């Protein structure tokens, strides 16, 4: 069932192992989407709401802030059961992004959840009762989970985050037995000595920080390979991390930061990797979803892995060999001066590198020209749809005082500013044809786009913004076909599902995401409520 979900179910974070984020349902289409109305709503725990519901057999499962998990009737919104985690007070007081989880997983009769106190738990999908509970890392030592697991080839795979908290040696990925939660393997996301270990400018392993794995991966069942993104080094400024100045005879590209890792899910073996941005000193990581498509490139059919980092540069590699294929720029950026068309190697604009004692303009900055809200692919149009943002930053390093020991954090201040000559529009949704990398359309607006996008078989692309609007775009032209205003920031991953032959579109809203708060500094006139998280579910009116 996980390999080939029913059209009416949403079983994975991006619905299928391919990572497309696409619903084949077509009851709601370009002609009738204007009639879409509210079917039901459900109040959620206030706070950052970056969640993706899972739907199976008419039951919708949703994660609330601070680990309340609920099962709801997908047609009526009636509560079937709920699980409330007993969290340490320190976790509750910390709140923030680590209190929300971007996805859960379902496997056999269990709902698999990563928690805000860095446990992984299995809940009985029928009752919400805890089946097992394991703790891969100690929350009090700075470890965090921001996304949930992926189940691949019978193994639960979970990435660790929070690795900007000065944990020696950085982050890791773990594989677990779905029956017991037992850890089967652990793969470190920072290279160890003897495995590309000389890429950290001579730094010992205990002085290498970062490389969080804070988005779930995707899985290719044909090659039995999981594709996972890795975040940036910490602290962000390379002169502070020890990655600059470059030491003679040493590499300083900082593996495996800003890379795709190709992993055997059974053993945790690293099959190959590809690094997109060496020595990332801007907090511009390439950690997001990996989309698997089989499309021609340069006259030959290729099995591609497509991803887009914070730079807004779409890049494709061959998912069997790791060979780099192509790149496509979207939003304004000044970090990469050029990209080698054969190898993908990037020439960096030296003027955009932050230096201690200076303020540098770089475009984009920390939240990214694209952030954690996911892109999506429609096989109907062979098009990638991307939520984007146009802006720059005055970046000022925050150096350690003499004798001060690094205890975590990015160690930089980003004062976000519009792109030079900007017309005032920050938010964008782009449609890029993956067959030839051409731009089919680009929707631009003042309010930042703060949700993932959802293309459907009915020719509609859904997405939402900071200004509380939820939109339906024409997938071929970008025309806004419908919009409605919700009670708060549309700041999550919309889905579509079916119950008893009726199609629904669901999206969670709620303020608190660090990305939304950052982008809000660019549009101070847009005011949003501090609280009020909810799940909105839309459907067409009954014909009778």
From TrEMBL:
The keyword Nucleotidyltransferase does not apply. Keywords: Oxidoreductase. InterPro entries: PQQ_b-propeller_rpt, PQQ_rpt_dom, Quinoprotein_ADH-like_sf. Residues 10-334, 434-505 form the Pyrrolo-quinoline quinone repeat domain. The keyword Coiled coil does not apply. GO terms for molecular function: oxidoreductase activity. Pfam families: PQQ (PF01011). Its cofactor is pyrroloquinoline quinone. Belongs to the bacterial PQQ dehydrogenase family. This is Pyrrolo-quinoline quinone.
